[in-house]
Amino acid sequence: MSIEITRGVCTGCGKCAAVCPGSLIKLAGDAAVIERPERCWGCASCVKECPAGAMALYLGEDIGGLGGRMTVKCEGGLLHWRITMPDGTPKTIAIDSRVSNRY
Amino acid sequence: MNPEMKWEIKKLTTDFLILGGGTAGCYAALTFCEHSGGHVLIAEKANIKRSGCLAAGVNAINAYIAPGKTPRSYVDYARADAEGIARGDLLLTMSEGLNRAVRKLEELGLVILKDESGRYAARGGRNIKINGENIKPLLARAVAGQPRITILERVSVFEYIVRDNRILGAFAISVDEPVLYVLTAKAVLCATGGAAGLYKPNSPGFSRHKMWYPPFNTGAGYAMGIRAGAEMTTFEMRFVALRCKDTIAPTGTLAQGVSAKQVNTLGEVYEQQYGLTTSQRLYGTLTENREGRGPCYLRTVGITAEQDEDLQKAYLNMAPSQTLKWIESGRTPAVANVEIAGTEPYIVGGHTASGYWVDTKRETTIRGLFAAGDVAGGCPQKYVSGAFAEGEIAAKSALSHMDAATPVVWETEIQKARRFLESFLRQPSKKSVDQRSVDQLEEEMQAVMDEYAGGIGSGYRYSEQSLAAAAEKIRALAEEAETNALALADARALVYSLELRERLTLCNSVIAHLAARKETRWPGFGENTDYPERNDAYNLYINSKRENGKLKILFRPLVKEGEIYEH
Question: Mean pLDDT across the stretch B278-289?
Answer without folding.
Answer: 92
